[in-house]
Amino acid sequence: MIVIIRPEQSLAASMAFFETHLEDCTGVAVQRVVEEPEGYKQLICAIKYAAIDTAIVTSQYAAHALAYALKLNESRVHPKRIICIGHKTARVLVNFKDLCHVPTDATSEGLLNDPILDDIEGRKVGIIKGTAGRTLIHATLAERGAHCHDYPVYRRQSIPINHDNQERLVKASVIIVTNGEAIEQLTKHPVFVNLKQKTWIVPSQRVADMAKRASIDTVHISAGASDAALLKCVNQILE
């Protein structure tokens, strides 16, 4: 059985996709996404006063925050460019698609290798993200001479793992997880002792490193966190 672990808000859409392609799969939500009001306020203020010329948007949840801030500021100056990690993220910003660029590799590392950042020195970069993770982007761009500021507009709140979900996880042959915080949550639960020997799929090297530190033996890295990229990795494993 394939178990897909995604935040509560996005699990149903992912399951609708996977169930059309896989016979034996199920979903488990161990987190829900919660807005961070202070991060929203800071982002709205930054847009209003043109404090960002390059916006980096790390997820669809971050994209919703930027779309809201831009809508409030419709008659004013927008960032000169918006760099979105993943096409799902870019689709949220469809009203600003002329400003958007999506790196081919939908990971932090792929973003940092994209030629669009070759002229980043001296630019005002706003990194719109969750409260955890993505530190590599800030650190690397600051080293390249950019003026970086993080806007943490959401956080992932843990959901208790009930008995049914514990059983699904124990029966899994492959576990797909899309963020490192979910792995950290699972390591704190007694069920994790039964999960270390399973095959895991993660969306980036950063999350793979977290999985390895948690003593997970078999970790595969997909080409990003999109459902299509994750399914492709599943099929490669099962071939």
TrEMBL record:
Q: Which UniProt keywords apply?
A: Lyase, Porphyrin biosynthesis
Query: Which pathway does UniProt place it in?
Result: Porphyrin-containing compound metabolism; protoporphyrin-IX biosynthesis; coproporphyrinogen-III from 5-aminolevulinate: step 3/4
Question: What is the protein name for this chain?
Answer: Uroporphyrinogen-III synthase
Q: According to its UniProt record, which reaction does this protein catalyse?
A: hydroxymethylbilane = uroporphyrinogen III + H2O
Belongs to which family?
Belongs to the uroporphyrinogen-III synthase family.
Tetrapyrrole biosynthesis uroporphyrinogen III synthase domain ranges (all copies): 37-231
Spell out the Pfam families in the cross-references.
Answer: HEM4
Q: What does this protein do?
A: Catalyzes cyclization of the linear tetrapyrrole, hydroxymethylbilane, to the macrocyclic uroporphyrinogen III.
Taxon lineage: Bacteria, Pseudomonadati, Pseudomonadota, Gammaproteobacteria, Alteromonadales
> Lyase: is it a keyword of this entry?
yes
The enzyme's first-digit EC class, named in words, is lyase
A single GO molecular-function term is: uroporphyrinogen-III synthase activity
Q: Which organism is it from?
A: Alteromonas arenosi
Q: Where is the signal peptide?
A: none
**Which EC number applies?**
4.2.1.75
